[in-house]
Write a structure and sequence with these properties.
Jelly Rolls; 8-stranded antiparallel β-sheet; 6 helices; about 30% strand
Length: about 300
């Protein structure tokens, strides 16, 4: 549990949170990644614990006040940590999906998919049933992914590739809306390394959409887009983040919130939940409301 945000804090409580035996406030500050001067108040709200969503189905937020991609010229960046748990079977995964709420139509969406059969990521702006996308095969980008050089080396729970010490990979997608070439418009980073080898593109027209629902590990349209996976520290911005911001969010493999990374400008979604949010509870940015856990749970690392 995080330390309280006000009132008395004891050295013993800080030690317990950090799992440290030190009695030195300076040593504890360093262990917590905090800066001098070493005031007790630095530790208000501090938590060393990390939590993840243990998913076998989708989770949703909706009612966005500041909708992503409100015009065809608005850009987007999405950051998340994911740990595959799925077996080697042919089932795709919708990693995240932006859709209009209250519809089952697939005509207007923005999503990132892992296509198991093709062993590739598909980043797609789909409007009026036209696809504008970039597709990147994991095996053609093995120097970044570490999943293998063959199309049969698919991304699974037993072949996670280059991951952190807890088995999570940091995925970061940027979408530069003014770019009309999909290869320039979409960039995907595995940890903080860009995937550069493109497998395919589509160049359909990009119409304006109203996307106010955000889903992870699946979509509104069917359950075939859900897989067993663990998610944590999901964030979204309505601009293209810099290479420095991507490095900050990767944080040398240690998941971090956008707030702690100092990457909060134009933040329109954040989830660092320590327990399943209540329905209608605001996300970390205050822009979205929690809609449905779909019987999914949160676990401490």
């Amino acid at each position: 549990m995080a330390l309280q945000s006000s009132g008395q804090i004891k050295i013993s409580e800080i030690k317990a949170e950090l799992g440290s035996s030190s009695n030195s406030l300076r040593a504890l500050s360093a262990a917590a990644g905090l800066s001098v001067p070493d005031a007790m108040s630095e530790f208000y709200g501090f938590s060393a614990a990390k939590y993840y969503w243990d998913l076998s189905n989708d989770i949703k937020w909706d009612s966005a006040t500041d909708k992503p991609l409100q015009t065809a010229e608005e850009s987007l960046s999405v950051s998340l940590w994911i740990r595959p748990q799925w077996a080697a079977t042919d089932l795709n995964l919708i990693i995240f999906d932006l859709t209009p709420s209250g519809t089952t139509s697939t005509a207007n969406r923005f999503f990132l998919q892992y296509d198991y059969g093709l062993n590739r990521f598909i980043a797609r702006y789909r409007s009026a049933s036209q696809n504008f996308d970039r597709q990147l095969a994991l095996h053609s980008n093995n120097s970044a992914t570490g999943t293998g050089t063959s199309s049969s080396n698919r991304w699974t729970g037993s072949n996670r590739g280059n991951v952190n010490s807890d088995g999570f990979v940091h995925l970061f997608l940027t979408y530069n809306a003014p770019e009309q070439n999909p290869t320039n418009a979409f960039k995907i980073y595995w940890n903080n390394v860009e995937l550069t080898s493109t497998a395919a593109t589509n160049t359909g027209a990009k119409d304006t959409m109203s996307l106010n629902e955000l889903t992870f590990c699946g979509n509104d349209h069917n359950t075939g887009g859900s897989r067993i996976a663990d998610y944590m520290y999901m964030h979204m911005w309505d601009d293209v983040r810099s290479a420095g911001d991507i490095d900050s969010m990767y944080n040398s493999g240690d998941p971090i919130s956008a707030s702690d990374a100092g990457v909060t400008t134009n933040l329109i979604f954040g989830d660092t939940s320590e327990s399943v949010p209540s329905v209608n509870a605001a996300d970390d940015s205050g822009n979205y409301d929690f809609a449905s856990a779909n019987s999914q749970s949160i676990v401490q690392l």
